[in-house]
Write a structure and sequence with these properties.
alpha+beta; UDP-n-acetylglucosamine1-carboxyvinyl-transferase, Chain; 4-stranded mixed β-sheet; 16 helices; 32% helix; 23% strand; globular; binds uridine-diphosphate-N-acetylglucosamine
């Protein structure tokens, strides 16, 4: 029997054993976009009719969102990658702390619940610890549409108190290009009276995906994908069937995995225009990229050259690929500079890459990386979703075996990652230990490490 303390400390958690010096080959299938799927699920709250969403990835974040919607009274039927949601009779407009705290995207429910019920109570959200991640833009957007909002004891309470039980269309100018705030205001405005204009809107493809589904439900949205979105409110939205767009972050992760292992790899389906910033940087590094319809083939040519990146909102280089790209730069020829501009605490992978022998100097949110020939396998711990992907990528190219812990982050956002990578030539094993590290040590079992000649 494991002690509660051991489980709490994550000591008995599963881990990955990743074989290094790996070569990838063949073709890899890209899943539906997590960030689209989550907001599309929340948008089902806007109608009494059935919403069918196809190409939903199987991820723990999706499980949490399902549980959250169930708790609000949505009936859900999920079979592999298809989910049917029906929010005919909502039983509450208060969402439970434990689920909201587990997933920042749960905050997406505030706009739809408010527009549909006229009131909502939702705890402040959780999610990856990559910065302060405030919600002020969501709140001021809803206030501009006429909501009264009180934040007390960590709970946000929003109400429509204009006597008409309807939000009112308005002009909203975001101070920062927030993806989540754009989505919150967009969803709320679909059922408002009159026209809403969102200026300085975020332009990420997931926002276009959301607008496409909402328009298919009867909404009147124009300009999603640009920085100015116009929404003419309608009185009611209908059911619809929608296919989630391919996950550009998963695709970018695998492109970088191919580059770091100097392997030729094909990916599909993808929407190449969603990956332009990443493709351009990979070309600059010396990779050949061939695009045919929904397929991308990458062929690294010779050594990878060091290039600088600065993250920024779409269409800039995505913050979600900054950590994987840093792993690539750790083995590039020359010195590169990576600057994180979207989140203030997204450099947790630096310490782990240094453990693998990476030569990285961190100054605030800028990392200077001197490429070395090969990283060394090590025992690693992921602190957030995208750094867990960076560690896998780094481990695939490293000398020896790596152990990666913190899989609760990885499983939030990469569907069956080890199965997919093993199909294209990797050697990754998920281990589910039944004794804690402390117990292993007490029993004289040597923990696996790359410095252990038995497994090197
Ligand atoms: C979404 C994505 C996440 C991605 C991020 C940026 C989902 C589920 N997650 O997160 O994977 O890394 O976009 O592309 O779609 N901000 C404020 N006030 C607000 C809201 C945001 O100051 O009210 C700031 C944040 O602190 C951050 C920046 O704006 O510095 C961007 O955040 P935002 O675009 O809102 O990210 P998320 O929607 O949380």
């Amino acid at each position: 029997m494991h002690s509660v303390a051991a489980i709490k400390d994550n000591i008995i958690a599963p881990y990955l054993e990743v074989g290094g010096s790996c070569r990838l080959y063949g073709e890899i299938k890209i899943s539906g976009a997590k960030n689209s799927a989550l907001v599309l699920m929340a948008a089902s709250l806007l109608t009494e009719d059935k919403i069918v969403i196809k190409n939903i990835p199987q991820l723990t974040d999706i499980d949490v969102m399902s549980d959250l919607l169930l708790s609000a009274g949505v009936s859900i039927n999920r079979k592999s990658n298809v989910i049917e949601l029906c929010a005919k009779s909502l039983k509450t407009s208060e969402l439970p702390y434990n689920l909201v705290h587990a997933l920042r995207a749960s905050f997406f429910c505030i706009g739809p619940l408010l527009a549909r019920n006229g009131k909502v109570k939702i705890p402040l959200p959780g999610g990856c610890r990559i910065g302060a991640r405030p919600i002020d833009e969501h709140i001021s957007g809803l206030q501009a549409l006429g909501a009264k909002v009180i934040i007390e004891d960590g709970v946000v309470e929003a109400k429509i108190s204009n006597g008409r039980n309807k939000l009112l269309g308005s002009q909203v100018k975001l101070n920062c290009k927030s993806v989540g705030a754009t989505e919150t205001i967009l969803m709320a405005a679909t059922l408002a009276e009159g026209e809403t204009i969102i200026e300085n809107a975020a332009q990420e493809p997931e926002i276009q995906d959301l607008a496409n589904m909402l328009n298919a439900m009867g909404a009147q949205i124009n300009g999603a994908g640009s920085s100015k979105i116009r929404i003419k409110g309608v009185s009611k939205l209908n059911g619809s069937t929608h296919n989630v767009i391919p996950d550009r972050i998963e695709a970018g992760t695998f492109l970088i995995a191919a580059a770091i292992t100097r392997s030729e790899l094909s990916l599909s389906p993808v929407i190449p225009s969603h990956l332009e910033a990443v493709i351009n940087k990979l070309k600059e590094c010396g990779c050949e990229i061939e695009i045919k319809g929904e397929k991308i083939k990458i062929t690294p040519k010779g050594s990878i050259k060091a290039v600088d990146i600065t993250t920024s909102p779409f269409p800039g280089f995505p913050t979600d690929l900054q950590a994987p790209f840093m792993a690539l730069m750790a083995t590039a020829k020359g010195t590169s500079k990576i600057t994180e501009k979207v989140f203030e605490n997204r450099m947790q992978h630096v310490g782990e890459l240094k453990r693998m022998g990476g030569s990285i100097q961190l100054n605030g949110n800028t990392a200077i990386i001197k490429g070395i020939t090969q990283l060394s396998g090590s025992s690693l711990s992921a602190g957030d979703l995208r750094s867990s992907a960076a560690m896998i990528i780094a481990s695939l190219s490293a000398k020896g075996i790596s152990i990666i812990r913190g899989l609760e982050h990885l499983d939030r956002g990469y569907e069956k990652i080890e199965t997919k990578l093993n199909q294209i030539g990797c050697n990754i094993i998920r281990k589910e230990p039944n004794i804690s590290v402390r117990e292993e040590v007490q029993q004289g079992i040597e923990p696996i490490s790359c410095h252990n000649p038995k497994v090197a």
